[in-house]
Amino acid sequence: MSIRISVSEAIGLVERLLHRQQLPQDIARDVAEHLVESDRVGYASHGMSILPGYRRALAAGHVVAAARPTLLTDSGTLQSWHGHHGFGQHGGKQAFASVIEAASRHGHCVMTLRDSHHLGRMGHYGEQVAAAGLVLVAFTNVINRAPMVAPFGGAEARMTTNPLCFASPLPGGRAPLIVDMATSTIALNKARVLADSGEPAPEGALIDAQGHATTDPAVMFADPPGALLPFGGHKGCALGVVAELLAGVLSGGGTIQPENPRGGLATNNLFALVFDPARGGAAAWQAHETSAFIDYLLSCPPQPGGEGVQYPGQYEANNRARHATHIEPGESTWKSLLALAAELDMEVGLQAGG
């Protein structure tokens, strides 16, 4: 079954589903735009497929529907935010808007955000920053749930997926450079999508509850669960540790260590640096050097049978262009949305085209 719906209709549907669950209209809109954009750029694991999980989180009281972020401290170049367990797609958008303004004024700004519900696709904020002509370096950790990533050499989970994000505008009308990746080989939501579709996980991404390598993503949802593995062995593990400490300690939100609560749903803490590259001077040279490097990178001959080289961010840009007006949610995602609408006694009000 091929499903195709317009971007505007998808946003409207998600917004109505969330508003029906007591989210204020503006918060519902921010979350809806973020989720649908994730589907547009090729990250279904962080798109509309996540809505049933949000429904369960709201019902259990793990996320506060109407919570808004508050600015705890502001020294001009350092801002500390509290998410109050509200929707991260709204709180993150608000916090980054403030930090972008501060970095544009001062040349840079360091920001922390604590106690946010799921922030969603971090590249979304990278694009928000890059659109303002600024550069982003960000680290996120995940608390208030059981660990899910085994450290390098370990047979059981002690860490979480702890994503990092780097974003920069590119000259010459190119789409921004966006690096957005979990420090695990795959994200937990990716494992969920693979398990739902009956597809295997990549080799080297998972171990089962006994510590044995497996490609079955369902082990992550077994009792007892398996564990994700860090990407790149000890190197990915090291970056995950850095993210844990920067985001968890400097924000004041805490780390995954067992003295802290694990009884709720995943909570994000964030450490981010936003800066204006133009403050370094030599803007014309920067633009030339950046363009020359990207051109050189893309001119690399492809491997036999390969599709050639892309710079980070082209994948998202190509998918966004491909889905300029419509998105194509998977059949399981579409059925879950219809079931959620029925549970909420809400008319969907649109038909998915074939």
Molecular structure report:
The structure is a single chain. This protein folds into three domains: 1-66 and 324-354, Orthogonal Bundle (Hypothetical Oxidoreductase Yiak, Chain: A, domain 1), CATH 1.10.1530.10; 67-184 and 232-323, 2-Layer Sandwich (Ribosomal Protein S8, Chain: A, domain 1); 185-229, Wheat Germ Agglutinin (Isolectin 2), domain 1, CATH 3.30.60.50. It contains ten helices and twelve strands. The strands form three sheets. A seven-stranded mixed β-sheet has the order 2-3-4-11-5-6-7, sandwiched between helices. Strands 9-8-10 form a three-stranded antiparallel β-sheet, with no helix packed on it. Helices cover 38% and strands 16% of the residues. It has helices spanning 7-19, 25-40, 51-60, 88-106, 122-131, 188-197, 234-250, 283-298, 314-322, 331-343; strands at 5-6, 70-74, 78-82, 108-117, 135-143, 164-168, 177-181, 206-207, 213-214, 227-228, 267-275, 326-327. The protein is of the alpha+beta class and 354 residues long. Helix 2 (25-40) crosses helix 4.
Key attributes of the depicted protein:
single chain; 354 residues; alpha+beta; Hypothetical Oxidoreductase Yiak, Chain: A, domain 1; Ribosomal Protein S8, Chain: A, domain 1; Wheat Germ Agglutinin (Isolectin 2), domain 1; 3 domains; seven-stranded mixed sheet; three-stranded antiparallel sheet; 10 helices; 38% helix; globular
